[in-house]
Amino acid sequence: MSKTIRIGTRGSKLALWQAHFTQDRLREAGIDSELIVIKTQGDRIQHLSFDKMEGKGFFTKEIEEALLRDEIDVAVHSMKDLPTNSPEGLCITAVSYREDPADWLVIRKEKADAQKPLLLPDAAVIGTSSARRKAQMLDLRPDIQIKDIRGNVPTRLGKLRDGHFDAILLAAAGLTRLEISLSEFEVVRFSPREFIPAPAQGVLAWQAREADKPTRRLLKQVHQSAVAELTNLERKVLNLLDGGCQMPLGVYCEKDGEGNFHVWAALANGWDQPVRRCRLSQSTKHGLPERVIEALR
Ligand SMILES: NCc1[nH]cc(CCC(=O)O)c1CC(=O)O
């Protein structure tokens, strides 16, 4: 018999889905757990665009602090929201399967224009607060207008429905996990090789105290090491650039049946600056992140 693992999570619908998913995986491994909901800066400050907020890790800081204070044993994060350097004393112990890593462009049906690229009318108003999505969208359609949008996934869809935007960009992972019907909208489902996702998009990270060996041993039972190999590569590129989740950087990695690694990356100096792209392949992962940085220069 092991003790009950305390899982710390944000309170949004998607975060709770992720926490329940964690509980299910642990239960399968015979491990009992309970949920502890924690509010973060990212949940409280919903009116500011991310580029107007200071620092990194808006969705993760308070949960990491609870972990350090021993109020929880495991923190569940969307891995893409997690800065590449864990605070002193904490580490990412395990990662989940990868949900579809793509971004989807969700368009109001009455605005969709089948004659135009990406089904967008001229000068379409696109809602996104992500510098990465802004830069890649402007690269594809320089005529569009960008407007910031905040709030959780259902809130954003509500704002689209209410006509504040012609289209918005969302992670396929969030929409799929919440089983949100998009039948009232037109949807452009980008390939992650074309519209490059955030490093580790679609993957959950399970964080624990470095010194808490019993919890870390339990988490290893649900760890997906093949996923970690790819997300570690993606996050290494972010780390080498000294970037956070507001950097206009997309990195996406696949490993093929022969064991070769393929990386697609896109980087801009700012959200309204030109996008530089690269696609690299090699048979080992060694030195690949460094080559990506070189190619994006
Ligand atoms: N930044 C918010 C956030 N963090 C994780 C997801 C979706 C799940 C994932 O990508 O793992 C989202 C919503 C979105 O980007 O549309």
**Termini gap:** 53 Å
What value does the average pLDDT take?
94
Main sheet attributes: strand count, strand direction, barrel closure:
5 strands, mixed
- Structural class, by secondary structure, is alpha/beta
Which superfamily, in CATH terms, is the homologous superfamily of one domain? Periplasmic binding protein-like II
Distinct bound molecules: the ligand NCc1[nH]cc(CCC(=O)O)c1CC(=O)O
User: What's the β-strand tally?
Assistant: 13
Strand content range: 25-35%
Strand and helix order: EHEHHEEEEHEHEHEEHHEEEH
CATH class wording of one domain? Alpha Beta
EC number: 2.5.1.61
Pathway: Porphyrin-containing compound metabolism; protoporphyrin-IX biosynthesis; coproporphyrinogen-III from 5-aminolevulinate: step 2/4
Cofactor: dipyrromethane
Subunit structure: Monomer.
Characterise this structure:
By secondary structure, the chain is of the alpha/beta class. It is built from nine helices and 13 strands. The strands form three sheets. It has a five-stranded mixed sheet, sandwiched between helices. A five-stranded mixed sheet has the order 7-6-8-5-9, sandwiched between helices. Strand 11 (249-255) and strand 12 form a beta hairpin. The longest helix is centred in the first third of the chain and has 16 residues, at 13-28. The radius of gyration is 19 Å and the shape is globular. The chain binds ligand PBG. The ligand NCc1[nH]cc(CCC(=O)O)c1CC(=O)O is lined by residues 78, 80-81, 153, 170-171, 173-174, 201-202. Keywords: Porphyrin biosynthesis, Transferase. InterPro entries: HemC, Porphobilin_deaminase_N, Porphobilinogen_deaminase_C_sf.
